[in-house]
Amino acid sequence: MGNFPMTPAGFKALHDELKHLKTKIRPAVIRDIAEARSHGDLSENAEYDAAREKQAFVEARVRDIEGKLARAQVIDTTQLKPDKVVFGATVKIYEVDSATEQTWTIVGEDEADLKNNKVSVGSPLARALVGRSVGDELEIRTPKGVRACEIISISFVSVEI
Questions:
Q1: Fewest C-beta atoms under 10 Å: which of 17, 57, 71, 115?
Q2: pTM score, two decimals?
Q3: 141 — phi, psi (to 5°)?
Q4: Quick one: how far is CA 40 from the chain centroid?
Q5: How many other CB atoms are found less than 10 A from the CB of residue 135?
Q6: Distance CA 105, CA 150 (A)
Q7: DSSP designation for 89
Q8: How far is CA 46 from CA 34, 49, 54, 55, 84, in A?
């Protein structure tokens, strides 16, 4: 398995989620299992089954996060020059067909959030942008079709963690 590129903010968010799962959620699930067990016959106990299912989900998520954090490649974008689009870049593009400007930040897969214009490094948009420079014209293949765009600016925004 390879490394997981992520921003410092993304690393902190995963670390915080892991801490929350281990210190708050896991103990609550254990209490729920103990409570359900006290109700007697486990073979027909829906509460017990639900609590065990939640425990399995929590434990799987803990393992997933621990694995990602162990293989995290935290990239400090404050030291990068805005001459080419790379991981962590905030890119302003002009979309020709709709005559609109859009700003996107290229982040790790766990940080992607389309509502906040954060796109995963593995997305079609990010793959089309990476390696390009200001003024480059490109076609971005998306599930909705091909979009003709031009890169207007590249910057590296420092995110508070």
A1: 115
A2: 0.76
A3: -90, 120
A4: 42
A5: 9
A6: 16
A7: -
A8: 13, 5, 12, 14, 56
Cβ pair 129, 69 in contact under 8 A: no
Largest CA distance in the chain: 70
Identify the residue whose tokens are 């003709």: 148
Instruction: Give the chain's domains with CATH numbers.
Output: 4-74 (1.10.287.180), 77-155 (3.10.50.30)
Cβ neighbours, 10 Å, residue 32: 17
What is the SS3 assignment for 50? helix
For the chain, 161 residues long, the average pLDDT of each consecutive 10-residue run is 81 94 95 84 79 94 94 83 87 91 92 92 91 92 85 79 48
The pLDDT value recorded for residue 1 is: 55
For 104, the 3-state DSSP assignment is: strand
d(CA 72, CA 111): 13
Distance in angstroms (rounded) separating the CA atoms of residues 129 and 6:
17
- Which element (helix H / strand E) includes 139? strand 137-142
